[in-house]
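User: My collaborator sent over this chain with a note saying "see what the structure looks like." That's all I know about it. Can you take a look?
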Amino acid sequence: MMGTGPFAAPVFQWLVESEHPVLALVTKPDPPARGRSRPPANPLRIAAEQRGIAVLAPADVNAPTCHASLSQLAPELLVVCDYGQILSAETLRHAPLGGINLHGSLLPRYRGAAPVNYAIWNGDRETGVTAIHMTPRLDAGPVLALRSVEISVDEDASSLEIRLAQLGVPCVEDALQQLERWDRHGPLGVPQDNALASRAPRLKKSDGLVDWTEPAARIFNQVRALKPWPGSFTFLAGGEKTTRLILHQVAVEPSTHETTEAGVVTYADRGRLWIGTGCQFLSLQRVQLPGKRAMDVAELLQGRPISPGTRLVNA
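Assistant: Without extra context I'll predict from the sequence alone. Here is the result:
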């Protein structure tokens, strides 16, 4: 199996406990230590080593040295999930059955590194997981199996990813059963409709900056989609100095007859902190100042009074 992140953990655990022999775990190399801090442990590597499964951690999975290792292992199939590298056609040819990849969306929607985040950010009501037969083109192979799930309005990317990872187990099981029935001559899976494809590119820290001209519902989705990383943030204006404010929990307030001004505090009392947006008000409920712990807005207002008319800015 090829995997690195927590999204791959349930599938890896299921595989090693199933009738399918796992010859090795191919995972990303651990990042270098910075000073005295040690890089976070790779849970898949730990689980593999505890079970006596060989671990490969190539810097480039498509390099000749990695190909030599794959040739020695002689796998029948590559199972890929949350790995972090794109496999070339030559790499896929090292397994007679090629590779299957578990992806965290209903393909062809949200091809790319951050499908869970974009499903929430765009306000989708449904998402799921898809197992595809891999091609060199990113997330574009024929669909072998998929499972769908509704997205709860109070769900963030972290909690949704946990649910989808568990849903991936029966999805991969379905895909393996398809491969077992395949005669290796006829078509395999259902081709994706590329006209319906959309992208979910890797997130950047700058994606977390809130644009207050967006509707409140869009910002609400952004905060949920970018939790825990990179997080959503804004800046409190205050004379010549601005203060970064991380938004942990927000809510869209019902429509009123008042006109909203984007990025301007309208209410700031009795635990309420309402901000104008491009459409409706957004109430901040749980926030965090630099160097401080996350706190409820009522606690923030006790220690740092904020007046109506205060602006939230981009920097």
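A starting point for your reply to your collaborator: The chain has a mean pLDDT of 95.
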